[in-house]
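notes to self, project folder thing:

trying the whole complex as one job this time. last attempt i did each chain seperately and stitching them together was a nightmare. two parts in total, labels are on each line so i dont mix them up again. if this works i'll redo the older ones the same way
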Amino acid sequence: MVTSIDPITFEVLRNTFEHVCRRMTVILQKSSFSPILSENLDFSNAIYDPALRLVGQTANCPVHLAAMHFSVQAVARKFGIETLRPGDVVVLNDPYDGGTHINDVTLTMPVFHEDMLIGFAVSRGHWMDLGGGGPGGQGFGTHVAGEGLRLPPLKLYRNYEVDPDLLEILLRNTRTPHYIRGDLQAHMGALLAAEDELQATARKYGRATLLQGMDDMIRYTERIVRAEIENIPDGVYEGADYADSDGITDAKVWARVKLTVSGSNLHVDFAGSDPQVAGAINSPFANTTAAVYTALQFFLAPDAPPNAGMFAPITLSLPDDCWLNARWPAPVVGCTTVTSGKVQSAIWQAVAKAIPDLAIAPTCADANWFVAAVRGAGGRIDVFSDIPAGGWGGTPYNDGLNVTLDPLGNCTNMPAEAAELLYPVVVEAFDLRQDSGGPGENRGGLGARFKFRFLNGGELSIETSRTIEGSPGVNGGSMSPVQVLVQEYGDGRREIIGGPRPDGTWRSPLLSSHKFGPNEAFEFLSTGGGGWGVARSRNPERVREDVIDGYISAEAARRDYGVAIDPKTLEILSDETSKLRQQA
Amino acid sequence: MWKVGIDVGGTFTDLFAVNSATGEERTGKVLTTPEERSRGVLNAIANAGIAPNEIELLVHGTTTATNALIERTFPDAAMITTEGFRDVLEIGRMHREHLYRPYQTKPEPLIRRRHRYTINERTTAFGKVEKEIDAAELQPIIEAIAAAGIKSVAICLINSYANPANERKVAEIITAALPGVRAISSADVKPVFREHTRFTLASVRATILPVMADYFERLEARLREAEFTGNLMILKSNGGMMSVNQARLRVEELVESGPAGGVGYASEIARTASSVNIIHTDMGGTSFDASIVEDGEGLITREYEIEFDIPVAVPMLDIRSIGAGGGSIGWIDSGGSLRVGPMSASSVPGPACYGRGGTRPTITDANLVLGRISPDLSGKFKLDGAAARAAVETVSSQLKLSIEECAEGMLRIATEAMAQAVKLVLASRGRDPRDFALASFGGAGPLHACAVAEALGTPTVIVPRYSGVASAYGALRLAIKHDEEVFYYAPLVAKELDEIGLRLKNLGAAAVEALLGQGASADSVQVSFVMRMRYAGQTFEVDVVQDRGVIERRDLDRLAEAFHGAHKREFGVRSNDFPVEIVALAVTAEAPSPAGILQSSTSSAIGSPRQAERKVWFGGWTDSLVHDAAGAVEVSGPALIEDPHTSIVIPPGWAARFDSARNCILERS
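result (full assembly):
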């Protein structure tokens, strides 16, 4: 197809594709049953053209962005596009056949207009539990089979009717069968809305114009991405970050990236990254690809329609034996959070070398995703999950965002009042952690203190990082402090169960089914983002304001920023401040 | 005696008045006095030649609350909250507004961190007080609040929706210690579940309460001085009105007080112009507002956000606003695509054709280029057609389009953006635009109304007679309204229904009581009942409207069916797999506007059918008649109808006629 639709119809379709995905999102959020969907918004909805290319998406989880495209391809591979019928819905989650980690379940529906395919509606959500060795898939074994029920592409609906046998399998392979039917119904509501909208658009403009518009939209985004790549000086830029541990051995696991910019093309090479590991942080190709595109989107096309046009100018190579290119049967449950975060941070650090004036410092680079198994009324096991975020890095223009989910996702928190109503827990804190932003001329945003108590005891699994070093700064900015995991016993005694301990030892922040007795609490201190620019260049007045509001302590003002503040009047002691700043 | 509606907007203060004895109607427009808006209210009254002591009813819509919130011009308030939750306002729901923008920031929290204090207390999710308030712990906080000169405190404790005892206790202690400080319990503002939602709502009340108290005090003082002794009513966000004494307390209900009047006008049109369902649109210089009037009522949302992640969880007219107005600028983005807005040339420098230094093409320029507006629009000053063409050419040359094609393209894009805004309101509620008529308000609205209607498939457009002072006119049409809501959890089973029926009845009685206190007469009060329901396991609810408050066991099947139907309409699916539960009960009591039923004085053309001929572009230059609004009777497109405030564009294939109230009705011929 060479000809283009007129610019006006183009703009209309652009709005339509956005609108379709937004409507899917509202329906899935408001009508789903598991709080990880309704409260945390851990899902994404998208539409694809008949050639299996992404046309539009509301990505509450940007890391689903490129990954869902592998799902549609897996559906086509398995069934052949020509065999699909109206009302078919294909489910899958296999990390090695269209999925990423087991919990992200993808539903794909072909959409027809007058018996001709006009695209696909796709809805991906994080399902709370699909079995496996630990609640929420977090068994941390060394085989993907331990992470839950693995679904190849299967027709879950035919002619809009659910297959009762398949549904029965789903219901019997989960710790939380009470969510399955309702969540499925909500996904179906979202898919039906997309079908309805796309068909209405085809009726109005005709199939040919609609498909041409999809093609134009993709080429439009590609033009924007290419123009932005051309603005980056040609060259090779390197960055690296690491996961603290794979949960099995206590060794760092490195992601090393090399960006090669050449004209309007960008090549991303992970040569030199660590081999596949035993533990659950390996990342299938689909997930690594998604993390790469998510990280780059911030600097290439933040406002362009998110679609397949992003992918064309960017090529990717991965070593065969690499934790970022996982092969069966490697376990992968931590790939979307721990691993995506490190890939994104490594890329941002490489970008900072290419365009230092425009770069922003790395974030906490993790979702800090935990899953807790709790015993509710009548001894029923329930599974509770949240993602207490850290902060974002300082930017050339302002301080980083406080406590905001990492770039890989845009999920929301579980309100304390929702958690306490639904589960036998008491949430005791979710507030800002003082001094947790990396110091800088523009400092990193702050991390959080998150704490909840198990009323009847339970188990907690978590996978995170940044417990050896915090988030690095850029352009002379400083690093944030490390993250800390604490268990508080019934008698008030506190023990660090992840991160550096007072005795000089260190514990891995990947915990699987860690036991908590009745009335014991879990506390997590997340870290902020890295600093941007030299901290002692920060305007002392801004430092003073931060002290008044308690974002930083008076001690940190003196130590990190060279600003002396009278503890009583909270005024700047200017002579002492000049002296401190001269010493630096 | 006069009944007067006044709308204080950003640029103009509009007035509409009707004489109760003679039926005489007057309109007026004066400049808003931003430094002291109450002065503009008096100016508008004087300008209309009305003596304040001859006003029996003054209904007032105000954007003062909204402006104070958005511009953060309120005095500092404080917050007292449960230990561990100091930063609920600041962390919000932990997400970000723009997925991929690297330099984005979030709106400033309504209450600064330095004024947020924590105390050690606890109520469980099931309403049991586990840790009582310790008065001694509050002492240093009270001292700090006094030292900072703070006048209002939001008391926001975890789980207070289930039991407000601890919050009320804190409020008592604060009030006793600091009589001049207003202590606001979050559960008393509204007992909604989810701390961020409730704390934010309480903070909205705490921050703007002093602002609005001052404003109403000054307004009343000025009115008293001018010997006004009538009834002063204030428009509220849900499309009703309340007494000024209620408004002083429930300031969080004033956020949509400004646009509410326009929706009131649209509701009247819905009743009189026999179009039951109306899309209300208002297009001015910088923005386009859209909302829905269904069965004669404005549709309501509970999810309004002042800014990103700052929700105001009270029932509010669901008005969507986008940056598309007469001043919106056309431009080419880095992908080579033509875009319009959201940036606007506003009043400085203004559209290129204003000749005040603007060089970028605006929607107004495009309309002038296409002959859709007269160069001597409203006789104020002459518009510069050459400047408009030159501005459009800066864009058209890059697209290799003619100037006219490009100008028309800009209008189509703006039109589509408007249509999308309307669709968002409609589609998120599963409504079909073909079931509606589009009512167009505002100076720039009628220029585009038929095109927006085409894009939506809406068959009818209505340009109301007083569309230029729509909000002031509409203010007199709104009902007195009072909402009450309680958190009440119960499964939908027969044995619960008697208790629910009793609670709804009591809630309705409380709302009626509140209404009678605002001057409504008992025989005119109507109460509507809403049960907020969901499938057991969901965490969001669907509103299920009850036509009557009497609920008994035998209503079980009817209620269940009403819920399934509402769920299917909102979310596309329904199911018998899950039990149904009730989460909250709400009532709205209302009484007709104290302005009574107004008799429109005019029913036929009020001028001679003057007309002129002009070339207007509709996909090509077309000879079109330009009619004077006062004398027009029936007009077929392509044509224009002009009045002092606006121009109605009638494209080819459309025809206009006037109804008995001189509203212009446009339909595809």
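what i see at first glance: Residues 300 and 317 of chain B are 4 Å apart (CA to CA).
need to look closer tmrw
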